[in-house]
Specification:
The chain is an alpha/beta fold. It contains 16 helices and 5 strands. α1 runs antiparallel to α2. The chain starts with a helix and ends with a helix.
């Protein structure tokens, strides 16, 4: 059962800000939670909503067992609205529908909450529509915006929210925790590089799709060292059919970045930092001969650029082809 004490251990500063709001009954009309994957944004937002609605709280801790808490957990509470990207973005129609819902009183109380995940994917029109909504807040309405990329959220929206920055979790402690739940120690380095969420890491470790994704990424790099003329055929026959959805595409670039960071670490003789490659392995040795340290640094910058383009809704195939050409 998640409590505020548990959350405080992971995110002491962020949780203290939200706990003070609840304890002093000074709820902001809008919060903007920013942080990387697995830093607990959704968990914090969900716990905050439960505290607002739970009728059986102990202090500010929701009971977690009542019908209200269970419905908020399952995203089925009529006064807690979740807005998530449709495809690759949050569209103006979704914000219009949200505004329409909020013209009515709460079904079970006067309080209403909406939680916007992936707030950085708002289209320009959706962002402007949301801004008007934030500028005229209802006293009983609380907005919680979640993002991994605050730089893509327009300043006027940022200025109307209370900003809460979630920090990366302690990687060493996280790896130990993964090992205690039965995850192979050989996998913990990669999983902790991708997420700070235990459940997400566990899902990755048991997911055949993820295992194949890792293989595809490494094989792509191998092709640059053995048969570079076949790279474009490979990305169309293997990469694109596998990484179909937006989250999958982003994960593919994360894995690619981790692999090239390994090559850079190997150039710097920092084998203890390797995550995805085995030290002195044949594939890594070939990659070291193929890519200089300077070239790897350039590739890493291009991967970051590709991720930004993907978030800006540039066509995924075009983004990948441009990256492949640069590599």
């Amino acid at each position: 059962m998640e409590t505020w004490d548990h959350v405080s251990e992971k995110q002491p500063v962020a949780s203290r800000i939200l706990m003070n709001s609840l304890q002093k009954n000074r709820i902001s009309h809008a919060y903007l939670l920013t942080g990387g994957r697995g830093t607990g944004k959704k968990s914090l937002a969900t716990l905050f909503a439960k505290t607002l609605f739970c009728p059986n709280k102990t202090g500010i801790d929701p009971c977690e067992v009542c019908n209200v808490c269970k419905r908020i957990t399952s995203h089925n509470h009529p006064d807690v609205h979740w807005i998530e990207p449709e495809g690759q973005s949050i569209k103006i129609e979704q914000i219009r529908q949200l505004q329409s819902e909020f013209t009515y009183s709460g079904l079970e109380s006067e309080q209403k909450v909406y939680i916007l995940t992936g707030a950085h994917t708002l289209t320009v029109n959706a962002a402007n529509r949301l801004l008007k909504f934030l500028e005229e807040p209802n006293q009983q309405t609380t907005a919680i915006l979640l993002t991994e990329n605050i730089g893509q959220i327009i300043p006027t929206i940022q200025s109307r929210c209370q900003l809460i920055d979630l920090q990366p979790l302690n990687e060493s402690a996280f790896r130990k925790k993964l090992a205690t739940i039965g995850i192979d120690p050989s996998e913990t380095a990669l999983l902790s590089a991708l997420t700070s969420d235990i459940e997400e890491a566990k899902e990755y470790s048991q997911d055949e799709w993820f295992a194949q994704a890792r293989t595809i990424v490494l094989q792509l790099i191998n092709m640059y060292t053995t048969t570079p003329a076949d790279v474009f055929v490979y990305i169309h026959q293997e990469w694109l059919p596998h990484f179909k959805e937006r989250e999958q595409q982003e994960l593919g670039y994360e894995l690619l970045m981790i692999a090239f960071k390994d090559i850079l670490y190997a150039h710097m003789h920092m084998d203890d930092h390797l995550v995805i490659y085995q030290p002195k392995s044949e594939n890594l040795t070939r990659a070291l001969h193929r890519f200089t340290a300077g070239e790897v640094s350039s590739v890493l910058r291009k991967i970051l650029d590709a991720k930004r383009k993907l978030q800006q809704n540039v066509h995924p195939t075009l983004v990948l082809e441009q990256l492949a050409l640069h590599i």
